[in-house]
Amino acid sequence: MSVAARLAASAGRPLDLVGVGEAMVELFADGPLGTAATLRRAYGGDVLNTLVAAARAGCATGFVSRVGDDPFGPALRAAWRAEGVDLSSCPLVEGINGVYFISLDADGEREFTYRRAGSAAAALRPDHLDAGYLASARVVLLSGITQAISRSAQAATLAAARSARAAGAVVAYDVNHRPRLWADLAATEGRGAGDGTRLARAACAELLPYVDVLLVSEPGDLAALGDGPAERVMDAVASGHELVVRKLGAEGCAIRGGGSWRHVPPVTPAAVVDSTGAGDAWNAGFLGALLDGRDPAEAAARGNEVAARNLGHRGAIAPRPA
Question: Considering the chain, what percentage of its residues have pLDDT values greater than 70?
Fold first, then answer.
């Protein structure tokens, strides 16, 4: 059954989009981190960013994760609940929450500093998943970042894909390759620095058989998919999937369905302030449009529009009026 047919058949399910992943506290400085007098607090996480944007557009969304009971935890859950994200499978548990800092260097370029090791979200395991909850969704969104934060989260991602597919949900997977995360995971296992890419490729390969909608950002995600020119790598990957997207930044995107690629032109943003979360916003626009019954090209154009708007503010989540 095609993606469109499965989405139509699942129209009566209580949740449109469920995401499995990690969320973190975001602290933003207007200058170098070491000399910043103040930090602005927010939150972010690739899957959660998509869920919030989709919820604001009218989708019923749910988050599968773990939130630490540190001083940040209750406020994080309250903020997500206020956005309309269902947290039935996102409990407050003993532990800490990851934190990431966004700062500006002397040239005004963004710098990211992460403190996420040992977080509650990284402790996610397959037995934390509720098969019934995943089955209540029309689309289940998974991410390569979730796979990279720990071996147990990687196993939970694979288990979620299998469970969602068995329940007839459409499985969407954003490769979201982060070399540093995979290198850190390799280091915790006593492996060499070069083993991070091998771990990423293995994790991606084990998940792909259960994926219906594959989301790839170029050029960063290509390393997790194979070696060689982008066209050759993407043609090889796309041959096994009904719907594949190549997010090309300022060049828009390309989609493949029915055996051929189709370019969808970009939307020129009114302003470019910060690209944090733009790809996640794209996912929200695209998946939301597919859920509304739009064809893939229309959905991709919607993704381009939402991502362009996201570029006009700082941080991963747009201010509420946006």
Answer: 98
